[in-house]
Amino acid sequence: MRYDIVSDTHGHISEELESALQGADVIVHAGDICSDIDLLHLETIAPVHACYGNNDWGYDYGPFVMHNITRFFSEGLRWEICHYRERLDLETCEVAVCGHTHRPFVEKDPRTGALVMNPGSPTYPRAGYPSMGRIIVEKGTILSAEIIRL
Predict the structure, then answer these.
(1) SS3 (DSSP) at 9
(2) How much of the chain exceeds pLDDT 70, in percent?
(3) CA distance 150 to 112
(4) Residues with Cβ < 8 Å from 78, sequence gap 6 or more?
């Protein structure tokens, strides 16, 4: 399964991002979507799991986008999505996704072993380049986790 990870799109899905998302099995969005239409568009590419960001409070994305933390179970792994890294509960998941800083990273938590990813931002990067993340999982095993420059 291919999980494409995005955050902080802020109401703009670029052609580069849309192209990179083609073929995803699942899209995980860690908040600051800032557009009902963009969320609907992402859902035409693949099923979306998402949470609200600090700029999303005026939107109603429906019952499956949680305001604080979104949790789901997929491909044998417990996933957690929260816009803010400091609010992630790494004791209760194997994969944690955050956003907010617009700075990409992927790391393994030394205490819990959970994979933690911030995909950066494809729209307003603060690391010098637009980015997203990609996690490949097979039968409960994470095969790869990477940041992709757009």
Answers:
(1) coil
(2) 100
(3) 31
(4) 71, 92, 93, 94, 95
- pLDDT tier at 142, thresholds 50, 70, 90: very high
H, E, C per residue of 29-53: ECCCCCCHHHHHHHHHHCCEEEECC
- 67: pLDDT confidence band, cut at 50, 70 and 90? confident
CATH number of the domain where residue 29 is located:
3.60.21.10
Counted domains in the chain: 1
Comparing CA positions, the residue from 103, 112, 94 lying closest to residue 133 is 103
- Residue 54 CA to residue 100 CA, distance in Å, equals 8
**Domain residue limits at 53:** 2-149
